[in-house]
Every structure is written in C-alpha cells, then in structure tokens.
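Subject: Sanity check before I submit

Could someone independently write out the structure tokens for this chain? I want to compare against mine line by line before I put it in a report. The sequence has 129 residues.
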Amino acid sequence: MSHWDHLPLWASLPTAALLVLGGGFTLTGCLGLLRLPHFYQRIHGPAITITLGTGCILIASMLLFSTLETRPVLHELLITLFLLMTTPMVSMLIMRAAVHRDLRQQHRLAAEKESPIAVYRDIQPNFHD
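---
Independent answer below. Compare away.
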C-alpha cells in the first residue's frame, strides 16, 4: 500500500476538482495564445487564464500535501500569492512595450513618408509596370 491509499475522500475530491479546473484554465489560455490573431489579444488570454489555472493547481497541491503530511504546507500558498501579484504586472509591461514599439514604428513611417526623398519617389513615373 502506498501513501496515496491513505488520502481521505474529503481531500481527494476537491484536489481532483481543482486539478481539472486548473488544467482547463491553463489549456484555454494556451489555446488562446495559439489561436487569437492579434498580439494584444494573444497576450490577454494567457495572462488571465494561466494565472487562474496555476493558482488552482498550486492550491490543489497545498491541500493534497497538507492532508498527507498532517501538517499545514504553506509554500504553495506563497508561490500562488507571488504568481497572482507578478503575472498581471509582467503582462502589463509586455503590452506597454508593444504599444511603445507600435507608436515608434508609426512615427518612423510617418517621418519617412514626409521626407523629401519619399516625395521625389512619389512623383517619378514608374517604368516597371
């Protein structure tokens, strides 16, 4: 007999439910990352769902090992709190960097369009057609 046989039903059912729920959230976030067309949409899906999925999995781990060891195991709670605090901030910083990149690229394209060389290119006939 292994130590898994001593796990009571009251602990195994919520643990299994949290693992399935966490896996579902994480899978949804990964599919959003793969399927959504635009960068801002792709970053938004995983930022929310993977945070919830990881939180559910860590809480399930905390419940399982607290029950098996008959003492509170709290390091998963610290990991969950750290994840819930840092993931939204990191996602926001990545999105801000993308916004700044897009604005710089638009500004650069606008400056190239207004340059004298671009104006000269626009009035020259195109003989390659």
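---
OP: Matches mine. For the report I'm noting this point. The radius of gyration is 25 Å.
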